Amino acid sequence: MSNANTQTFDTEQYPFINKGLEGIVAFSTNKSFIDGQKGELIYAGYNINDLAHNVSFEEVCYLLWHEKLPTQAELDELNKELVANRALPQPVLDYIESTNSEASPMSVLRTATSMLADFDDDAEVYTDEANMRKAIKMTAQMPAIIAAFHRKREGKEIMAPLSEGSTAYNFLYMLNGEKPGEQAEKTMDLCLVLHAEHGMNASTFTARAICSTMSDIYSAITGAIGSLKGPLHGGANTAVMNMLLELDKDADINEFVSGKLARKEKIMGFGHRVYKTMDPRAVHLRSMAKGLAKEVGMEYLYEWSETILKTMKDEKNIDPNVDFFSATVYYSMGIKPDLYTTIFAMSRVSGWTAHYFEQFANNRLVRPRALYVGEKNLPISQISDR
Ligand code: ACO
Q1: What residue ranges define each of the domains in the chain, with the CATH number in brackets?
Q2: d(CA 35, CA 33)
């Protein structure tokens, strides 16, 4: 390896590197706006605090795709299309049946989503109408993939989708094998609303970068799923729950957090590249976590979370992000921790596809540069001399 400090940098042409593309504005968008100082999140003109509890996930999908809230007739039509597209092609179900039960649900979701393209006659049709049909299909089918994999690994029958009900309702039915109650459906629907869109995060950037090569929407979403999987991004919600489950009931939470910080370890579900205050989605999830944990007799989970929050604020002045309280919400609903990131993905597919449409309509190839810090023009020695 060469020593970067001894190399000649092309500092005139590239005076600095924006590691992690921090502070770089690469696209314009109508899809969402974040004010990280105020803790404000807007989806296509509407504040998340107004959308939460007032509109369904399907209305949010429509909003992100069409940049306006739907009329009743438009919403009915979208719901009809979502319901009609829920069933998975048999080869995708066969793949799910053949998976290793120990596989990561995000890996299975990534592979199965990619497979969907093989069974879509529109896969290589690039009109706006075809792209919209494909966005609706993926939004309808991703919940079916997640639920089917979970039931297969538990040795349970894979449920056929319902021909009625919301995305949240059908997902909980396909996951648990029984129709959910009103409260569970509402909770899941709100989680989907809160996770649908969030500016130029890593997975959305991935989707747009793939789109910018004029590749197809299945490729863009497959790549985005891979990007979301990492623990610094969507994978944090599973990591939060694993962290909470590691604690025992008598644990000293302050000591646990301080110890981690002293060892320079991260507390999952905290910190954000953009927010410098509480993530507004975390505000909603916090109150949901409080109510649900109480309802199922797991108040300790919520109390631990509050203690972690206070210690993080006192010691590092860092606030929780969307992933911190969502873990307690899903756990209280009886959902297995390794599925949490897949639930994030089945919501965020609406934002990813919305960004795909936007990029496709006004494209420029995403092609940044890297500053070469290696050596140059080394002589090639004989292989026997190396
Ligand atoms: N726990 C402890 N310290 C933290 C945390 C954390 N969760 N997050 C940031 N910090 C500290 C860093 O150690 C660093 O401190 P230092 O300056 O003393 O070295 C400082 O805050 C800045 O942190 P960076 O990691 O450099 O900030 P960046 O903008 O690159 O990171 C990120 C943002 C990746 C989200 C980070 O906060 C993190 O790793 N959080 C934990 C993982 C997580 O929850 N990810 C989900 C994010 S939300 C989403 O993607 C859906």
Answers
A1: 32-230+338-361 (1.10.580.10), 236-332 (1.10.230.10)
A2: 7
Which two three-digit tokens encode residue 243?
């962290």
Q: Which residues are catalytic?
A: 233, 272, 323
CB 123 within 8 A of CB 216: yes
Q: How many CB atoms lie within 10 A of CB 328?
A: 26
The response to whether residue 58 sits with its C-beta less than 6 Å from ligand 1 reads: no
Instruction: Please give the distance, rounded to the nearest whole angstrom, from the Cα atom of residue 206 to the centre of ligand 1.
Output: 20
* Ordered per-residue pLDDT tens for the chain, 386 residues: 334 444 455 666 676 789 999 999 999 999 999 999 999 999 999 999 999 999 999 999 999 999 999 999 999 999 999 999 999 999 999 999 999 999 999 999 999 999 999 999 999 999 999 999 999 999 999 999 999 999 999 999 999 999 999 999 999 999 999 999 999 999 999 999 999 999 999 999 999 999 999 999 999 999 999 999 999 999 999 999 999 999 988 889 999 999 999 999 999 999 999 999 999 999 999 999 999 999 999 999 999 999 999 999 999 999 999 999 999 999 999 999 999 999 999 999 999 999 999 999 999 999 998 888 899 999 999 999 99
**Model confidence pTM above 0.85:** yes
Check if 234 has its Cβ closer than 6 Å to any atom of ligand 1.
yes
Report the residue among 204, 238, 243, 318 best suited for mutation to probe ligand 1: largest number of ligand atoms under 8 A from its CB: 318
The token pair that represents 310 in the structure block: 């206070």
In the beta sheet, which residues pair with residue 43? 32, 46
CB of 269 shorter than 6 A to ligand 1: yes
